[in-house]
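In this section we turn from sequence analysis to structure. A common task in structural bioinformatics is to predict how a protein folds when a small molecule is present, because the ligand can shape the pocket around it. The inputs are simple: the amino acid sequence and a SMILES string for the ligand, here zinc ion. Study the lines below before reading on.
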Amino acid sequence: MTGKLLGIAVVFSFCLAQTPAETLRGSLRQTQGKPPVIETGGRVISLAGEPETMAVLGDHRLAGADLELHGEFKNPALFAVGPFYTSKSVLVHKNGKKYTISYWCPVCSIRTYTPGKCMCCQQETQLDLEELK
Ligand SMILES: [Zn+2]
């Protein structure tokens, strides 16, 4: 009896640990001096997220990209992007495939997850899309 109850409790707490996952798919629109937004079906959705996530979404190399964002709608016009560390909260759709976003310095062979200069040689890192398998 005790064992059975414990089993139920474990399953229950596991369910609570799952964040409500919603998906937003659309084109990334960037306007100078404004936060990035997603345009989908004629609607414009504002985005919120961690600084690292917003840095990626503000990367001009991703302008117009077909993005799939995982997180939750705070209201119909605002989508909060999920945790940055999972690296799967922001995905790129391209040629029928999904890609994760990261940045690569070919000089130092260092991978980072936000756009900017390489921590080692201070050169601008390259946008590197990796196919999600
Ligand atoms: Zn480097």
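The pocket of zinc ion is lined by residues 105, 107-108, 110, 118, 120-121, 123 (CB under 6 Å). As an exercise, try to locate the residues that line the zinc ion site and compare them with your own expectations.
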